[in-house]
Structure formats: structure tokens, C-alpha cells
Design brief:
The complex is a heterodimer.
Chain A lengths: L1 H10 L11 E4 L2 E4 H21 L9 H21 L8 H20 L19 H23 L15 H36 L5 H31 L4
Antiparallel strand pairs in A: 1-2
Helix pairs in contact in A: 2-3, 2-4, 3-4, 3-7, 4-7, 5-6, 5-7, 6-7
Chain B lengths: L1 H7 L11 H131 L1 H5 L1
Classes of the chains: A mainly alpha, B mainly alpha.
Chain lengths: 244, 157
């Protein structure tokens, strides 16, 4: 059975290897090598693009500078609408990098034929289809909004747990767990599901049929990046908001 | 299929948390710092500078426009004032001219009257003279006619 499956997958363009990882051992720590390889690719893309865009900054932008400025304006608008005109500026790098990293990760998973590269274990895919990445990003978001709230209001930030009534205390505490949980699982689930659907479809019907799903996947990937960044900004904004 | 197997396995699987998580977080924070230096700061500065530039130019242009409007208004006021002045000067000059004309006319009329009177007196004088000489001649003529008609003896008698 397993043999048959292997033969079948060798014959087709794509095989499915979910939950398999290429382990790196560094100082007794286990790492998912394939995630780091693709994340380094994503980071390199972002760093190279932004470095090239800011090589010679013109007052009248053109080419890559124009494109990146468009991206930056988009990120700024996103942060501004969620966090507010007064406070958004220090948070633009964090929220923007969340968006850019997730967006480029997702699209690299959809556009770069990672699976053609042979690696010793597992297979290359978008960094965001590993739960470690999404949980890392959402935990950072949690830390960010705690930091935002405490740096803005001091210890009275924790007063919001008993607002509007102390009865809601458990729910308010629960929220701090559901926020990163929902953030990470939404992203992880969407990206993994998309790659699985595409993988299964390619596995069953290699030609043309997966294309609409792939296009849908591009759309979903962009939306997921937007949702993650928007929610992160909204949480940060909510923590700083002084509505009490 | 394949993945269900790995979900259940002790090693690996979908929810395999390990050192990837903290390292990914650190990596992400480093990316934030790098992008802040190479992307957000310089491009944000470029955008802000451009906004300032556009806003500054806009304000300057507005100021200049206001200045121009003010100047126009002032010049228009000055123009109106000058026009009024010119009109009053013209009116004054016209008044003066008509006064002078009237005076001249009066003088000329007076002169004319005076001259006419002088001439009339002269004429009168000459008329008197003429009448006087005429009377003498008439006397002489009538004497001659008398002499002719009556003869010199009778006449001289």
C-alpha cells in the first residue's frame, strides 16, 4: 500500500508530505529546517526590495520606489485606521512587517514551486504553513499589545479586565488567550488548507483543474495577511484606547 | 492518507512545537529592525518630506495669491481715487477757464463799448464840423446864387 502510494506520487508532479519536517539540531534544539529556508528567502526578498527601493530616494518617485511607497502608504493607512492618527507611527514597522512577511510568505508558497527542490525531510512550503511561525507571530502580537497598553497607561491598563463590570473578568482574561490562538490558527489553517487543496488537486488532476483553486489561494493568502495585520493593529489600538 | 499518519506520530506532525517558534519570533523581530532601517524610516521620511513640500508650496502659493488680491484691491482703490482727483482737476480747470473766458468777454465788451463811444463822439464831432462847414458853404453858395439871379449890385446891397 505504502509502496503503491510512493510509486504513484513519484509519477505525479506533486506528492503530499504533511507533518513531516526536516529537522536541524542546533545545541540540542530541534528546528524545522524547511521553514527557516523559506523564511530566509522571504526575508531576503523583503530586505533586497526595500534596499533597492531606498537606494536613491527621489522627490518624484518612480519604479520600485513608487511601488514600495504605495505599499508603505497602504500599511500606514491600515495602522492609522486601526490604531488612530495620534499613536500609529511607532507601530507602523511592526504591523507593516507582519503584513509584508505574511503576505510574501503566503505568495511565495503559492507562486514559487518550492516542491521541486529536494530536501532530506518534509518539503519546502510557505513559512506560514508551519504552526510554529504563525504562533510566533501571534505571540509577538500579544506581547506587542500588552506592551502598548502598559506603556500607554501603566498598571492601570489591567483595570480593563474588570470593565465594564467585574463579572466579565474571566471573559476578558480568556480574550488574551483567544486572541493569539485565533490569529495563529486562522493563518495556519488557511494557508495549510490552501496548499493541501492545491496539492490534492494536482495529485488527482495534474493539468488546468487546480488553476482556479490556485488563483483563489492567491486571493486567500493576500486576505489572510491583511486580516492578520489588521487584527494585530486593532488589538494594539484597543489596548491603547482610553475609553474608560 | 499520508498526513493523517504523521498527525498521530510522536515525532513530527502538524502541531510539532519546538525551538522553531522562539527562533522564528527572534528572526521576525530582527526583520522588523532591518526593515525599519531600510524601508519604513527612509521611505516614510520621503513621503513626509514630500507632503511637507507640497503643503509648503501650497501655503506659499496661497499667501502669494492673497497678497496679489490685496495689491489689486489697493491699486484699484488708488486708481479710483486718482480718477476722482483727475475729474476734480478737470472740473476746476473748466471752471477757471470759463471764469477767465467770461472775464475776457466782459473786458472785450467793455472795450468795445468804450471804443464805440469814442468813435460815436468822433463821428458826432465830425458831423458838427461837417455841418458847420456845410453851413458856410451854403451861405457862400446861396450868396453866389443870389448874385447870379439878382446881379452883383443888388446882391451886395
Amino acid at each position: 500500500m505504502s509502496n503503491l502510494f510512493n510509486n504513484l506520487s513519484a509519477a505525479t508532479l506533486a506528492s503530499l508530505e504533511v507533518g513531516q519536517h526536516w529537522y536541524w539540531e542546533i545545541g540540542g534544539l530541534k528546528l524545522h529546517g524547511q521553514v527557516f529556508l523559506t523564511s530566509w528567502f522571504v526575508i531576503a526578498v523583503l530586505v533586497v526590495a526595500s534596499t533597492l527601493a531606498t537606494q536613491s530616494i527621489q522627490r518624484v518617485p518612480s519604479g520600485l520606489q513608487n511601488f514600495m511607497e504605495f505599499g508603505l502608504e497602504f500599511i500606514r493607512d491600515l495602522a492609522k485606521t486601526q490604531i488612530g492618527e495620534k499613536e500609529y507611527r511607532p507601530w507602523v514597522p511592526f504591523v507593516g512587517t507582519l503584513f509584508l512577511f505574511i503576505f510574501v510568505s503566503n505568495w511565495s508558497g503559492a507562486l514559487v514551486p518550492w516542491k521541486l527542490f529536494e530536501i532530506p525531510g518534509g518539503e519546502l512550503a510557505a513559512p506560514t504553513n508551519d504552526i510554529n511561525t504563525t504562533v510566533a507571530l501571534s505571540l509577538l502580537t500579544s506581547l506587542a499589545y500588552f506592551y502598548a497598553g502598559i506603556s500607554k497607561k501603566g498598571l492601570s491598563y489591567f483595570a480593563h479586565y474588570v470593565e465594564p463590570t467585574p463579572i466579565l473578568l474571566p471573559i476578558n482574561i480568556l480574550e488574551d488567550f483567544t486572541k493569539p490562538l485565533s490569529l495563529s490558527f486562522r493563518l495556519f489553517g488557511n494557508i495549510l488548507a490552501d496548499e493541501l487543496v492545491v496539492g490534492v488537486l494536482v495529485f488527482l488532476v495534474p493539468l488546468f483543474v487546480p488553476l482556479p483553486v490556485m488563483v483563489l489561494g492567491l486571493f486567500t493568502s493576500a486576505i489572510q495577511a491583511l486580516i492578520f495585520a489588521t487584527l494585530a493593529a486593532a488589538y494594539i489600538g484597543g489596548a491603547m484606547e482610553g475609553h474608560h | 492518507m499520508h498526513w493523517t499518519v504523521f498527525l498521530a506520530e510522536a515525532e513530527g506532525g502538524l502541531f510539532d512545537f519546538d525551538a522553531t517558534l522562539p527562533l522564528m519570533a527572534v528572526q521576525f523581530l530582527i526583520l522588523v529592525v532591518i526593515l525599519n532601517a531600510t524601508f519604513y524610516k527612509p521611505l516614510g521620511k520621503a513621503i513626509d518630506d514630500r507632503d511637507d513640500y507640497v503643503r509648503g508650496n501650497d501655503t506659499a502659493a496661497r499667501d502669494r495669491l492673497a497678497e496679489v488680491r490685496q495689491l489689486t484691491e489697493r491699486y484699484e482703490q488708488e486708481l479710483a481715487q486718482t480718477r476722482k482727483q483727475a475729474q476734480s482737476i478737470v472740473a476746476e480747470a473748466r471752471d477757471a477757464a470759463s471764469k477767465i473766458a467770461a472775464q475776457n468777454l466782459a473786458e472785450a465788451q467793455a472795450e468795445a463799448i468804450r471804443k464805440r463811444e469814442v468813435v460815436a463822439a468822433e463821428i458826432e464831432q465830425q458831423k458838427q464840423d461837417a455841418f458847420a462847414s456845410l453851413e458856410q458853404q451854403i451861405d457862400a453858395l446861396s450868396r453866389q446864387m443870389l448874385e447870379k439871379l439878382l446881379g452883383s449890385e443888388l446882391a451886395s446891397r
